[in-house]
Amino acid sequence: SVILVSISSSTSSGSDSPQPAPPSPTIGNLGDLDLANLSNTTTPSLSPASQATSSNNKLREKLILQKIETISGSLIQRPTTPQRFAASWIIDHDKLKLDAQSPYLIQRYVIAVFYYALGGEYSWPKTYNWMSESTIECSWTGLECDENNFVTKIDLSNIGLTGSLPKEIAGLPHLKYLDLSQNDIFGALPNDIGMMNSLEALYLERNDITGNVEKSVCELREKGTLQIFTTDCTKIDFKIECGCCSNCPDTESFLTPTLESGNDDIDLRKSGISTVLSAVSSEIFKDGSPQQKAYNWIVEDDGLKLDRFNEHLTQRYVMAVMYFQLSGDSWTTKAWLSPEKNECSFIGIVCDRNMYIQVIKLDHQNLSGILPKEIG
């Protein structure tokens, strides 16, 4: 039998250097807004119906501003801040037209601040659908939500983001997983992260974040809530002082049961790999499944010792899944899945110049079974 599979692969990259801030959407004269008298303002030249609409719009604006001021303060009044851009977008441009009573107002505002603070349209890949005005944020690339549509995961690693992490990120109380690794994020780590009591994993390495990690953040590690926390604090790439990060020296007293002292580097690698591969396969932890066998081979037996940052990790995993799914132990080539060779060297595999698989031709290998979905 012959299996011929054509796979196209591509990577996206963002800006290599900070870009100018996006032009500010307008909020009228927000900087001079009289919040106290806003609801009483009318326009005599308008018809009664138009006056009512105008008054309702201004009241909505007033109440929204009052609510988001509780987490951003006066920053929403400053003309060129990410907070101002986000407030303008929520009030004037977002087609969902949330009001101050919506349980999702703060969440949507925080996500908008996050977007503008990290470069906006100048940094984000064009294929990402952030700031889509007619869809809920849970459908935006890199975000995942729970059954109640509250954001629980943000995965934006290696997409070229540039800027400083805004303190408003702490306004996502349901967030469990935040991966911003391998970007161009600079500045200090916001102290407000110490208030994120649901946060379990925080990946910030391979950025330009500097300064000190505050005690409030480390307390999340002490309590066992924040199980994984990585920054550029290793001896090789030292940029930030951190006494509680998973990948830094002198963190033993903060290690949780899932990151036992002496094994934290190994467990950190496993955790990162499982995060990447679980997006490809939902069965990597299903006992006896080809997916679990492939995962175990990658993290334990594979001599290449790839980590979650390797662009060929998923490709190698898929080859392993295929091997175990199609009764690899019975193949004619007994050592087809070699732990010492790149997958492009496997018999029947043809790759392009970038080492991405283009052709799989496995005739006369005594294959049996169903081709795994991961091959797609």
Short key terms for the protein model shown above:
376 residues, alpha/beta, 26% helix, elongated
Walk me through what this model shows.
By secondary structure, the chain is an alpha/beta fold. The protein has a domain at 277-375. The chain is built from 7 helices and 11 strands. The strands form 3 sheets. A 5-stranded mixed β-sheet has the order 1-2-4-6-8, with no helix packed on it. The longest helix has 25 residues, at 48-72. Residues 1-44 and 249-262 have low confidence and may be disordered. Pfam families: LRR_8. Keywords: Signal.
Quick take:
Residues 6-17 have a biased composition (Low complexity). This protein has 376 residues and is α/β, with parallel strands linked by helices.
- SSE order in H/E notation? HHHEEEEEEEHEEHHHEE
Structural class: alpha/beta
Note the beta-strand portion.
Answer: 5-15%
Please tell me the overall pLDDT. 81
Euclidean distance between termini CA atoms: 19 Å
Number of strands: 11
Count of discrete alpha- or pi-helical segments spanning 4 or more residues: 7
Q: So what's the oligomer here?
A: single chain
Radius of gyration: 25 Å
* Spatial strand order of the main sheet: 1-2-4-6-8
Low-pLDDT parts are 1-44, 249-262
The largest sheet, given as strand count, sense and whether it forms a barrel, is:
5 strands, mixed
Topology:
Blueprint (H helix, E strand, L loop, with lengths): L47 H25 L9 H12 L11 H13 L25 E3 L5 E5 L6 E3 L12 E3 L4 E5 L12 E3 L4 E5 L2 H8 L5 E3 L9 E2 L22 H15 L11 H12 L11 H13 L23 E3 L5 E4 L16
Parallel strand pairs: 2-4, 3-5, 4-6, 5-7, 6-8, 7-9
Antiparallel strand pairs: 1-2, 10-11
Helix pairs in contact: 2-3, 6-7
Organism: Eucampia antarctica
Protein name: Leucine-rich repeat-containing N-terminal plant-type domain-containing protein
InterPro entries: DNA_repair-toleration (IPR053211), Leu-rich_rpt (IPR001611), LRR_dom_sf (IPR032675)
